[in-house]
Every structure is written in C-alpha cells, then in structure tokens.
Amino acid sequence: MASLNLEGGEEEGVLLPIDLELQSSTHEYYLVGGFFTTSVVHFSAMKNTMANLWHPLKGVQISNIGARRFLFRFFHEIDIDRAIFLEYDTKLINRSLKNHLQIRVE
C-alpha cells in the first residue's frame, strides 16, 4: 500500500476506443475510472458488481482500456448521474469492515 498515492496527478492522455462517427450522432455518456488497490482487479467480477451497484435503466458497457483503467459507457443521462453521485457509507469503517467501495469523480 505504500506505493499508492492519491495526490500524484497523472499527466498522460488516454486514447478511448470510441467511434467518433457513431458518437456524434447519439448522446453517449462515458466515465474513465480505476481502482485504488495494489491487487489485481478481476474484470468480470468487477463488471457484474458495478452493474448491480448502479442498477442502470438503459444499461452500462464496461471495457478494459489498459493501464489499470476502465471505460464505463452509459446509455442514459440518469444512469451516469447515478454513477457520479454514488456515495459510500462511512459507517462500514466503524463496523470494522475492511472491504468497502469509494467512488470519486472529479
């Protein structure tokens, strides 16, 4: 855990696998995210967990874009708003549960 740092900003750009012709003709909502862990993220388990957590009305498509980053594509504005404003329960820490979720979007 000593190698993890919240303060270190990343300067690299990320090339997203988005078809620009298709994207310009429809409204699409994207988030790029990662997981603050030194462990390996099991992709299929993460996809199922995030989809179940967000309960998107129109669905979510999650892609691995490399460098420990994931592309979350939502198909409705309500769905992306749910993902952005999800808060985690601080009461879990008081109960000594070490496995918890925190989503931070800037």
> Based on DSSP secondary structure assignment, what is the total number of beta strands?
3
Question: Which fold does the CATH topology refer to?
Answer: Ribosomal Protein S8, Chain: A, domain 1
Q: Identify the CATH architecture.
A: 2-Layer Sandwich
How would you classify the quaternary structure?
single chain
Query: What summary fits the major beta sheet?
Result: 3 strands, antiparallel
- Class by helix and strand content? alpha+beta
What percent of residues adopt helix (DSSP H or I)? 25-40%
Highest CATH level, the class = Alpha Beta
Lateral strand order in the biggest sheet: 1-3-2
- The total tally of domains equals 1
Listing every helix as H and every strand as E from the N terminus to the C terminus, the arrangement reads HEHEEHH
Beta-strand residue fraction: 15-25%
Output the number of helix runs: 4
Distance between the termini: 23 Å
Note the overall shape. globular
Domain DUF4283: 26-84
Pfam families: DUF4283
Protein name: DUF4283 domain-containing protein
